[in-house]
Amino acid sequence: MSNASAESRAGLWVAAASFVLWGLMPLYWHLLKAVPSLQIVVHRIVWSAVLVSAWLLWDQGRGWLRATLARPRAAWMLGLSGLLIAFNWGLYIWAVNAGHVVESSLGYFINPLVNVVLGVAFLHERLNRVQWISVAIATLGVAWLTWQLGQPPWIAIGLALSFGLYGLIRKLVAVDAVSGLGVESVYLFLPALVVLLWGEAHGSGGFLPAEGWGWGVDALLVIAGALTALPLIGFAFAVRRVPLSVVGLMQYIAPTLQFLLGVLFFGEAFDESRAIGFIFIWIALAVFASDGLWRARRQAVLAAG
């Protein structure tokens, strides 16, 4: 087996593992249901900052932060992206522990299509006819859910928009995934630590004290930092070795697992009216993904010829 083939296969396995881990995260947050969502988020920020910074220090040396911030516009744009990802984490964790796993999965199903719309609006990208059709079908699905529920699916929209805007900023600032997460974590570390210490001092926290949540929960909160960093590091490893078209299709592993967990494990309602809305969105994704795969194969054939 050639080195390139081995690298590609390793990238596929790592990408799959990353998306599976993201997809199974509702089970992990469910184990922390006794902890307020804000406390989970600030612990996640603090411990991921410690772990990601340690990784970058080992991998890139002491100058990693200065080198990343030296990129044009990186300082303020990564601050903004840090706020967006913190909001996304907070909304997602709250939604999971409030019994909205299915709607959360919807947010990540429609996220690729939101990315397309943001690309048109901010990057002056052009869509072909098939891509416009997929966006229109997904819009019909969201409109159907809005009509059936009596209000828009705000959780799904909030997750999709916050993660889509996060991705847009990260595309514009052009730093690698792990270094960018490291800078975002550094920005968020002190505010999160203040909130954490304030909560411990005023009785809303329960980390370490004997009357707190217990050592098992404390350990889960610390490990949450690693579970934040590991999939993203794995994703960064994979995209350098696997075609983006393949990674783009594999990203649907995560919301699919989230959806299945919501229905089969958490027992959330999924009646016929909600199913119709989801079917519209799944059709839109199938059209969008098929078009992307066809174009990638066509480019590969042209390049080979």
Please provide a written account of the structure.
The structure is a single chain. It contains twelve helices and no strands. With 305 residues, it is mainly α. It has one domain (3-304). The radius of gyration is 20 Å and the shape is globular. The two termini are 24 Å apart. The mean pLDDT is 87.
The dominant shape is globular
The figure for the number of domains is: 1
Nearest-angstrom radius of gyration? 20 Å
Distance between the termini: 24 Å
The share of residues in helices is over 70%
Major β-sheet profile: none
Class computed from helices, strands and strand pairing? mainly alpha
| Overall pLDDT score | 87
Q: Tally the beta strands.
A: 0
The number of distinct helices, counting runs of at least 4 residues, comes to: 12
Percent of residues in β-strands: under 5%
Spell the H/E element sequence. HHHHHHHHHHHH
- Provide the low-confidence segments as ranges: none
A few lines on this structure:
The protein is built from twelve helices and no strands. With 305 residues, it is an all-alpha fold. It is a multi-pass membrane protein.
Topology:
Elements: H1 3-31, H2 37-60, H3 64-69, H4 74-97, H5 101-123, H6 129-149, H7 154-173, H8 177-201, H9 215-239, H10 244-250, H11 253-265, H12 272-304
Helix pairs in contact: 1-9, 1-11, 2-4, 2-8, 2-9, 4-7, 4-8, 5-6, 5-7, 5-11, 5-12, 6-12, 10-12
